Amino acid sequence: MELLIDGLKKAIEMILSGDQEVYAITWLTLKVCLISILISTLIGLPFGIFLGLTRFKGRRILLLFINIGMGLPPVVAGLWITMLLWRSGPLGDLSLLYSPTAIVMAQILVSLPIVTSLTCTAFQQISDKMLLQIKALGATKFQTFIILIKQLKIAILAAIMAGFGRVIAEVGAAMMVGGNILGDTRILTTTIVMEVSKGNFDIALALSFILLSVALLITAALTFLQQRKRIS
Amino acid sequence: MNPLIQLKNITFKAQNKTILDIPEFQINAGEFLGIMGPNGAGKSTLLKVVSFLEQQTSGEILYLGQVIPIGNAPIELRRKFSIALQQSLLLDGTVFHNIAIGLTLRKISKAVINEKVEYWMELFGISHLAKKNALYLSGGEAQRVNLARAMIVEPEILFLDEPFSALDFPTKIKLMEDFKGIIETAQTTAVYVSHDLMEINYLTNRLAIIVNGEVKQSGPTPRVLEHPNSSTSSFLNEWKKFYPLAR
To answer: What sections of the protein cross the membrane (chain A) (predicted)?
Structure first.
């Protein structure tokens, strides 16, 4: 208990003292996580809607792989991205390994299946009759898409929150593809692992409180968007 | 007779089964056409095909004498029609928003939308529900919203697929009375699908009986109901045991 309180005090001290290193790590964490979830949403949302509303040969198999992807171990994602970006790998020429971009790529790999699958599940529940009714109201395909997104706002934001939860908590892949380089690829989760391995539990705890605060703030904002003004 | 829609040699097949087989059929301007038949006869499919929501397997549909290519009805044509289904299928939002949606999709100005929504809410007696969430309405209220939503776009043809069937009897009677008055005042051409003789007898002035995907008899409603032919008598006589035909 004493250790927890000390950790909390240390976290407040780090924030108030304007520790540039902590700020830089927190900012990078926020940046890579938000970029990852934004890209996952931009790809996963339309893809999930497509999978939820259409039926085609091979759809079930595709969904099976996406659902398996929801439980993809981060180290496996990290390994794949490392092999992809390794000097002799297909994208080796881009020299992206051990860069924030590599972390973003790994985080997309772990969050994209979550956003896609949960979006697909939500849209799959829309009845054919509802789709017919929207068409009968005189909606174009694009207008139908907008109406459905508005109607399923709660489920869509839940999918985004679940994806965000995965990327903010992710450490294995970020360590593997980022390398935990100070001032370059060091993010909160990788720093916590490093401090624990050094036996600095107070710093690790302090950083964990900062990480929790960041996660809490983003999730709170998304929850506010999700739950605001429902007319009864 | 001034046909708005004509069907020529229409078939609709699903999973190698013929659901509709209609050599000739038409909807005339200003009429209140009833389509009646037993469950699974193809009534709702006919409604979807004739309103261009589903595409026929073969045959021609003509709108004002012009052939509309299969599966290629332009959005402008679809927007001339309106549909109210058995389930009200309202959206999560206010009653006002739900009634306005057809006009919003047609990019009508806000001032006109406000004016029209007020008018149709008053006509259907639901002005007091304007700010309520449409998902929390009673069955009767939801169906009034559904009908107002269909009528507000002032359709050339209003298609109705058993909109009163899920309502309790007193609610159904009251809503049908109100609705008939509104349709007559607006002089809207309407096509009403039902398997309920009482509703058909009360609302429609022309009737088509459809059995196994084929139109077996059509004509003025009283005449068809009073003189069913050999193909429709077994279905109609069952109903007539329960409802008198007096209008």
So the answer is: 24-49, 61-86, 98-123, 144-169, 203-225
